Structure formats: structure tokens, C-alpha cells
């Protein structure tokens, strides 16, 4: 007979997201996870198998929440330039906050995608989802006459996603939120 879990898996996963987000994959040991998550080593192995699987599960959970947050911001009413500026500002503010660990997905891309196919795949899925949301918002702006029909929403969405990635890396490496916000205003000029 299978044993029932003696812990709340969602709660444990949320704590794993926090720990991996703050420390990264390489700097989080299985012992760190056992201590921070408050469950036994055997329970972690029984549930996730290994640290890499737990990391991937945590990263997927973070990705779902991040995509949902971006969706909510892009669904706000208003001119597309303002909506995108607000999105960029929120990302910069969140990433440059004194206690912030930056974007978990961006951190994971930098740390792992050069040599971890699973993380690279998640990063690609994340990119396509965010790009899709931005392209949809830009398409609405075109339909409403706010954006020229000569602009390709898919190409613009990819450019803006790459801008978001740059913000994520620069905010962690440099801080300087005002310089980053100025850079995003320049990026938004491609809208016309």
C-alpha cells in the first residue's frame, strides 16, 4: 500500500522555489533543501527523485506564476506603449529591490541553459509564452489603430522579450533602475 505524503507538496514546492531562486541550482545542496523545506531526505527523494527534478518542478511553478503575472499586466486597459512601459517598470522595480533575487527564470537561463537541456527547454517554453502574450497585445493595438500594420507583432514581441531578458540580467548585475527605465523608454520607440 502506498504511503500518504505527510507534507503539503504545494507549500514545499513554494519554499523550494524561494531557495533555488535565492541561491541558484549549484549553490543549493540537498542538505540545504532538507533543512529549508522541513521534510526528510527520503520524502524528497520519494517525491522528486533528485535535486534536478525538484529544481525543474520548482522552475515550472515559478514560470506559471510569472507568465500569469505578465498576462495580467498586458491585459490592463490603456495605450500599448503605457502598458509595456508599466510592465518593464514593474520588472525593473522588482528585480532591483534591495531584497530581490532577480528573475528566477533569467537566473536559471544564465546558470544552466548552456549545459542543461531540460532548463533550456523550459526557457524556450517560457520565451514563447511571454512572446505570445506580447504579440497578442500588440495585435490588439494594431486592430485598434494604435500600432502601424507595417509592424510585425511577432518580431516586436521577440524584441521586447529579449529586452526583458536584458533588464533581468542588467538589474542583477548593475542595479541602476533609473538607467534601465530610460533604456526601456528608448526600446519602446520602435512602436513608432
Topology, please?
Layout: H1 9-23, H2 30-37, H3 41-48, H4 51-74, H5 80-96, H6 104-112, H7 117-143, H8 153-174, H9 177-187
Helix pairs in contact: 1-4, 1-6, 4-7, 5-8, 5-9, 6-7, 7-8, 8-9
3D structure, described in words:
There is one protein chain. The protein is mainly α. The chain has a domain at 62-191: Tetracycline Repressor, domain 2, CATH 1.10.357.10. The chain is built from 9 helices and no strands. The chain has helices at 9-23, 30-37, 41-48, 51-74, 80-96, 104-112, 117-143, 153-174, 177-187. It is elongated.
Keywords:
single chain, 192 residues, elongated, 9 helices, mainly alpha, Tetracycline Repressor, domain 2
Q: Into which percent range does the helicity of residues fall?
A: over 70%
Strand content: under 5%
CATH class of the domain at 62-191 equals Mainly Alpha
CATH names the topology of the domain at 62-191 as Tetracycline Repressor, domain 2
What's the CATH superfamily of the domain at 62-191, by name? Tetracycline Repressor, domain 2
Taken from the alpha-carbon principal axes, the silhouette is elongated
Terminal residue distance: 64 Å
Order of helices and strands: HHHHHHHHH
Quote the average pLDDT.
89
Count of β-strands: 0
Largest sheet: none
The value of Rg in angstroms is 19 Å
Number of helices: 9
Structural class: mainly alpha
Low-confidence stretches: none
CATH A-level architecture of the domain at 62-191: Orthogonal Bundle
